[in-house]
Amino acid sequence: MSRPSLLTVTELFKPITWFPPMWAFACGVVASGVAMDGRWGLALIGIALAGPLVCATSQAVNDWFDRHVDAINEPHRPIPSGRMPGRWGLYLAVIWTAISLAVATLLGPWGFGAAALGLLLAWAYSAPPVRLKQNGWWGNAACGISYEGIAWITGAAVMAGGSMPHGESLALAALYSAATHGIMTLNDFKAVQGDRQMGVRSLPVQLGVDRAARVACWVMVVPQWVVIALLIQWQRPWHALAVAALLLAQVFLMRRFVQDPTARALWYSGFGVPLLVAGMMVSAFALRSITQGLAP
Which alpha helices (H) appear in 35-191, and where do they start and end? Predict the structure, then answer.
């Protein structure tokens, strides 16, 4: 059996998708308030685990079990195009799962447990019989929890020597996980035709394109409102103002996005989503200042 080229393998793993969990892990590291002295190695291992390993695994798993849908929506992808021959897509998903678990042992019980949970969600998202992505509500929730919540909490816990992150950090991790549900919906607008044919009940399929776009926007906006309120309560008004400014810019872009969701989902992902994730880091630095006992 012929083997795929390195370029094809890289395309299967989709490096562009690694950023969200790597960023969330970094936010957890910052929010922990722990000095980086002597811990840079742990942080770098955690970031690599979140992106090039666990997230890359999830992409391989998804492409293998979505190969029939992709043949309709995106036939140029490695598996439906034939550039990833035979069952190599599945083999790589299994191999990368094993490598991810092996690397996760370097981060102690918290790191290993988080990686195992993230990988379990990755397989449950795409693989039958569970296949959470069959329903957009459940599938997008699994991605939000894995990409943002687990990554954030793991970064904070690993830096704190395996201690449970403080309540403020857990709250922000949960809120940004919820907001990510809306981000994941943006990815579904390009695949409506194939999803309908293959019975995948994404939110644009269930609710219709226009309504799903509005729901996605509200799901992104409301958690950020709560973040702003919490930052004010925690006496971090300047951080709250920064997050509010970033949210206002998102709302301005959303008004254009909802006018033509199918054509502008990718556009909004490129310009609106970075504003949301920038707010994540602002919030993480607010927590860092609280943890370190600095003045507001």
Answer: 40-48, 56-65, 67-73, 88-104, 108-126, 136-144, 151-159, 167-186
Asked whether 20 and 147 are in contact (CB, 8 A), the reply is yes
Domain ranges of the chain: 6-291
CATH architecture of 6-291: Orthogonal Bundle (1.10)
Concatenated DSSP letters of 234-271: TT-HHHHHHHHHHHHHHHHHHHHHTTSHHHHHHHHHHH
CA distance 119 to 122: 5
Residue 161: partners with Cβ closer than 8 Å, 6 or more residues away: none
70-93 pLDDT, tens per residue? 888 788 999 999 999 999 999 999
CA dist., res. 12 & res. 25, Å (int): 23
For residue 213, the SS3 value is: helix
Residue 274, pLDDT > 70, answer: yes
Structural Rg of the chain based on CA atoms: 19
